Automatic annotation (TrEMBL):
It comes from the Eukaryota. Its cofactor is Cu(2+). CDD domains: LPMO_AA9. Transmembrane segments: none annotated. Its main location: secreted. It is an enzyme of class 1 (oxidoreductase). It is found in: Secreted. One of its GO terms (molecular function) is hydrolase activity. Belongs to the polysaccharide monooxygenase AA9 family. GO terms for biological process: cellulose catabolic process. This is lytic cellulose monooxygenase (C4-dehydrogenating). Pfam families: AA9 (PF03443). InterPro entries: AA9, AA9_LPMO.
Amino acid sequence: MRLALSSSLALLLPVLARAHFTLQYVWANGVDGGYNNYVRVPPNNNPVTDVTSTDLTCNVGGTSGAGVQTLSVAGGANITLEWHQHAQRTGEDAISGGHKGPVLVYIAKAPTTAAAFNGQGAVWTKIYQSGLLTPSSQTWASDVVNANAGKHSVVLPASLPAGEYLLRAEMIALHVAATYPGAQFYIGCAQIKTTSGGSAAPPKVALPGAYHGSDPGITVNIYNNLQSYVAPGPAVWTG
Ligand SMILES: [Cu+2]
Protein backbone atom coordinates (compact mmCIF):
# COMPACT_ATOMS: atom_id res chain seq x y z
CA MET A 1 0.00 0.00 0.00
CA ARG A 2 2.75 2.41 0.96
CA LEU A 3 4.66 1.52 -2.17
CA ALA A 4 1.64 2.14 -4.35
CA LEU A 5 1.04 5.53 -2.77
CA SER A 6 4.58 6.78 -3.16
CA SER A 7 4.79 5.70 -6.77
CA SER A 8 1.59 7.56 -7.63
CA LEU A 9 2.98 10.65 -5.89
CA ALA A 10 6.15 10.32 -7.90
CA LEU A 11 4.03 10.27 -11.06
CA LEU A 12 2.03 13.28 -9.97
CA LEU A 13 4.92 15.61 -9.15
CA PRO A 14 6.25 16.04 -12.69
CA VAL A 15 2.70 16.75 -13.85
CA LEU A 16 2.40 19.61 -11.36
CA ALA A 17 5.77 21.01 -12.41
CA ARG A 18 4.76 20.88 -16.06
CA ALA A 19 2.93 24.20 -15.93
CA HIS A 20 6.17 26.08 -15.26
CA PHE A 21 8.92 27.13 -17.67
CA THR A 22 12.51 28.37 -18.04
CA LEU A 23 14.57 30.54 -20.36
CA GLN A 24 16.29 28.09 -22.72
CA TYR A 25 17.58 29.89 -25.81
CA VAL A 26 19.27 33.24 -26.43
CA TRP A 27 19.33 34.50 -30.01
CA ALA A 28 21.56 37.33 -31.28
CA ASN A 29 20.41 39.20 -34.41
CA GLY A 30 18.29 36.23 -35.45
CA VAL A 31 20.94 33.56 -34.82
CA ASP A 32 19.94 30.78 -32.42
CA GLY A 33 22.52 30.40 -29.64
CA GLY A 34 21.56 26.81 -28.83
CA TYR A 35 19.86 25.02 -25.96
CA ASN A 36 20.72 26.49 -22.53
CA ASN A 37 23.86 28.17 -23.89
CA TYR A 38 24.82 31.54 -22.29
CA VAL A 39 22.07 31.06 -19.65
CA ARG A 40 22.40 30.58 -15.91
CA VAL A 41 20.21 27.48 -15.79
CA PRO A 42 18.13 26.99 -12.62
CA PRO A 43 17.78 23.52 -11.05
CA ASN A 44 14.14 23.21 -12.16
CA ASN A 45 11.31 25.17 -13.78
CA ASN A 46 9.67 26.38 -10.58
CA PRO A 47 9.00 30.11 -10.17
CA VAL A 48 10.45 32.44 -7.55
CA THR A 49 7.72 33.88 -5.29
CA ASP A 50 9.69 35.79 -2.59
CA VAL A 51 10.63 39.23 -3.92
CA THR A 52 13.15 39.72 -1.10
CA SER A 53 15.16 36.60 -1.99
CA THR A 54 18.44 36.71 -3.93
CA ASP A 55 16.71 34.17 -6.16
CA LEU A 56 14.90 37.19 -7.63
CA THR A 57 18.17 38.31 -9.20
CA CYS A 58 18.78 35.46 -11.63
CA ASN A 59 16.65 32.54 -10.36
CA VAL A 60 17.80 29.77 -8.02
CA GLY A 61 21.58 29.38 -8.07
CA GLY A 62 21.81 32.34 -10.45
CA THR A 63 24.26 34.49 -8.52
CA SER A 64 27.05 32.35 -9.99
CA GLY A 65 28.03 32.15 -13.65
CA ALA A 66 30.53 29.37 -13.17
CA GLY A 67 30.63 27.17 -16.25
CA VAL A 68 28.36 29.48 -18.29
CA GLN A 69 29.67 30.89 -21.58
CA THR A 70 29.27 34.57 -22.48
CA LEU A 71 27.71 35.55 -25.81
CA SER A 72 29.63 38.22 -27.75
CA VAL A 73 27.60 40.75 -29.78
CA ALA A 74 28.01 44.25 -31.18
CA GLY A 75 26.33 47.09 -29.31
CA GLY A 76 22.74 47.64 -30.42
CA ALA A 77 22.19 43.94 -31.08
CA ASN A 78 18.72 42.46 -31.20
CA ILE A 79 18.47 39.77 -28.53
CA THR A 80 15.66 37.21 -28.56
CA LEU A 81 14.82 35.26 -25.42
CA GLU A 82 13.01 31.92 -25.82
CA TRP A 83 11.20 30.11 -23.00
CA HIS A 84 9.76 26.60 -22.74
CA GLN A 85 7.93 24.45 -20.22
CA HIS A 86 10.14 21.41 -20.63
CA ALA A 87 13.47 20.71 -22.16
CA GLN A 88 13.50 22.27 -25.59
CA ARG A 89 10.95 22.72 -28.34
CA THR A 90 8.37 20.00 -27.87
CA GLY A 91 5.59 21.60 -29.87
CA GLU A 92 3.36 22.09 -26.84
CA ASP A 93 2.59 25.60 -25.60
CA ALA A 94 5.90 27.30 -24.82
CA ILE A 95 4.44 28.52 -21.58
CA SER A 96 1.10 27.30 -20.33
CA GLY A 97 -1.68 29.65 -21.43
CA GLY A 98 -2.83 30.01 -17.84
CA HIS A 99 0.29 32.01 -17.03
CA LYS A 100 -0.94 35.56 -17.66
CA GLY A 101 1.27 38.54 -17.01
CA PRO A 102 3.95 41.00 -18.08
CA VAL A 103 7.33 40.49 -19.72
CA LEU A 104 10.29 42.57 -18.53
CA VAL A 105 13.98 42.77 -19.41
CA TYR A 106 16.77 44.31 -17.33
CA ILE A 107 20.51 44.65 -17.92
CA ALA A 108 23.42 45.07 -15.50
CA LYS A 109 27.07 45.82 -16.32
CA ALA A 110 29.62 43.52 -14.71
CA PRO A 111 32.58 45.13 -12.93
CA THR A 112 34.81 42.51 -14.56
CA THR A 113 33.38 39.50 -16.40
CA ALA A 114 29.74 38.49 -16.69
CA ALA A 115 30.63 35.03 -15.39
CA ALA A 116 32.07 36.51 -12.18
CA PHE A 117 29.14 38.90 -11.59
CA ASN A 118 26.56 38.11 -8.90
CA GLY A 119 24.13 40.87 -9.91
CA GLN A 120 23.69 42.16 -6.36
CA GLY A 121 23.17 45.82 -5.46
CA ALA A 122 21.76 48.74 -7.46
CA VAL A 123 23.06 47.54 -10.83
CA TRP A 124 19.93 46.81 -12.92
CA THR A 125 18.45 48.98 -15.66
CA LYS A 126 15.04 48.14 -17.10
CA ILE A 127 15.22 48.17 -20.91
CA TYR A 128 11.89 46.58 -21.84
CA GLN A 129 8.44 45.85 -20.48
CA SER A 130 5.08 44.82 -21.85
CA GLY A 131 1.99 44.14 -19.76
CA LEU A 132 -1.79 44.11 -20.29
CA LEU A 133 -2.02 44.82 -24.02
CA THR A 134 -5.77 44.67 -24.71
CA PRO A 135 -8.09 44.92 -21.70
CA SER A 136 -11.22 44.07 -23.72
CA SER A 137 -9.81 40.64 -24.56
CA GLN A 138 -7.58 40.42 -21.47
CA THR A 139 -4.58 39.85 -23.73
CA TRP A 140 -1.26 39.95 -21.90
CA ALA A 141 2.34 40.14 -23.04
CA SER A 142 2.63 36.50 -21.94
CA ASP A 143 -0.06 35.54 -24.50
CA VAL A 144 2.04 37.11 -27.26
CA VAL A 145 5.13 35.20 -26.13
CA ASN A 146 3.13 31.98 -26.11
CA ALA A 147 1.75 32.66 -29.60
CA ASN A 148 5.31 33.37 -30.75
CA ALA A 149 6.60 29.93 -29.71
CA GLY A 150 8.08 31.24 -26.47
CA LYS A 151 10.05 34.11 -27.98
CA HIS A 152 10.31 37.84 -27.31
CA SER A 153 12.98 40.29 -28.37
CA VAL A 154 14.76 43.37 -27.06
CA VAL A 155 17.27 45.72 -28.70
CA LEU A 156 20.26 46.49 -26.50
CA PRO A 157 20.51 50.30 -26.27
CA ALA A 158 23.48 51.26 -28.47
CA SER A 159 24.52 53.95 -26.00
CA LEU A 160 25.40 51.36 -23.34
CA PRO A 161 29.17 51.16 -22.79
CA ALA A 162 30.94 48.19 -24.31
CA GLY A 163 31.61 45.47 -21.79
CA GLU A 164 30.22 42.38 -20.12
CA TYR A 165 26.64 42.25 -18.88
CA LEU A 166 23.97 40.13 -17.30
CA LEU A 167 20.72 40.33 -19.27
CA ARG A 168 17.80 39.47 -17.00
CA ALA A 169 14.56 38.38 -18.68
CA GLU A 170 11.48 38.04 -16.51
CA MET A 171 7.93 36.84 -17.02
CA ILE A 172 5.58 37.34 -14.09
CA ALA A 173 2.58 34.98 -13.95
CA LEU A 174 -0.35 36.56 -12.11
CA HIS A 175 -2.96 33.77 -12.15
CA VAL A 176 -2.69 33.30 -8.35
CA ALA A 177 -1.50 36.82 -7.44
CA ALA A 178 -4.55 38.09 -5.53
CA THR A 179 -2.59 37.63 -2.29
CA TYR A 180 1.16 37.76 -1.60
CA PRO A 181 3.13 35.58 -2.00
CA GLY A 182 1.33 34.39 -5.07
CA ALA A 183 2.76 36.06 -8.18
CA GLN A 184 5.20 33.72 -9.93
CA PHE A 185 8.47 35.22 -11.12
CA TYR A 186 10.09 33.30 -13.99
CA ILE A 187 13.58 34.63 -14.41
CA GLY A 188 16.41 33.82 -16.77
CA CYS A 189 19.79 35.55 -16.92
CA ALA A 190 22.04 35.48 -19.97
CA GLN A 191 25.71 36.45 -20.01
CA ILE A 192 26.45 38.91 -22.82
CA LYS A 193 29.53 40.84 -23.95
CA THR A 194 29.06 43.89 -26.14
CA THR A 195 32.07 44.68 -28.32
CA SER A 196 31.02 48.28 -29.06
CA GLY A 197 28.96 50.95 -27.38
CA GLY A 198 28.59 54.47 -26.09
CA SER A 199 28.99 56.24 -22.80
CA ALA A 200 25.51 56.26 -21.27
CA ALA A 201 25.08 56.07 -17.49
CA PRO A 202 21.55 54.66 -17.11
CA PRO A 203 19.47 54.68 -13.88
CA LYS A 204 19.81 51.51 -11.81
CA VAL A 205 17.87 49.58 -9.17
CA ALA A 206 18.55 46.51 -7.04
CA LEU A 207 16.82 43.15 -7.61
CA PRO A 208 15.91 42.13 -4.96
CA GLY A 209 15.12 45.60 -3.64
CA ALA A 210 13.00 47.33 -6.26
CA TYR A 211 10.02 45.00 -5.87
CA HIS A 212 7.66 44.84 -2.89
CA GLY A 213 4.88 42.39 -2.11
CA SER A 214 2.44 45.31 -1.89
CA ASP A 215 3.24 46.61 -5.40
CA PRO A 216 0.02 46.82 -7.48
CA GLY A 217 1.78 44.94 -10.26
CA ILE A 218 2.65 42.06 -7.91
CA THR A 219 -0.42 41.64 -5.71
CA VAL A 220 -3.34 41.93 -8.12
CA ASN A 221 -6.53 40.10 -9.00
CA ILE A 222 -6.44 39.78 -12.77
CA TYR A 223 -9.84 38.06 -12.98
CA ASN A 224 -11.99 41.11 -12.27
CA ASN A 225 -12.06 42.73 -15.72
CA LEU A 226 -8.74 44.48 -15.11
CA GLN A 227 -8.50 47.63 -17.25
CA SER A 228 -4.93 48.71 -16.61
CA TYR A 229 -1.76 47.24 -15.21
CA VAL A 230 1.42 48.84 -13.88
CA ALA A 231 4.41 46.49 -13.97
CA PRO A 232 6.71 46.51 -10.93
CA GLY A 233 10.08 48.23 -10.88
CA PRO A 234 11.27 51.48 -12.48
CA ALA A 235 10.35 53.07 -15.81
CA VAL A 236 11.93 51.66 -18.95
CA TRP A 237 15.19 53.37 -19.90
CA THR A 238 15.37 53.71 -23.65
CA GLY A 239 19.00 54.77 -24.01
CU1 LIG B 1 3.68 27.31 -13.77
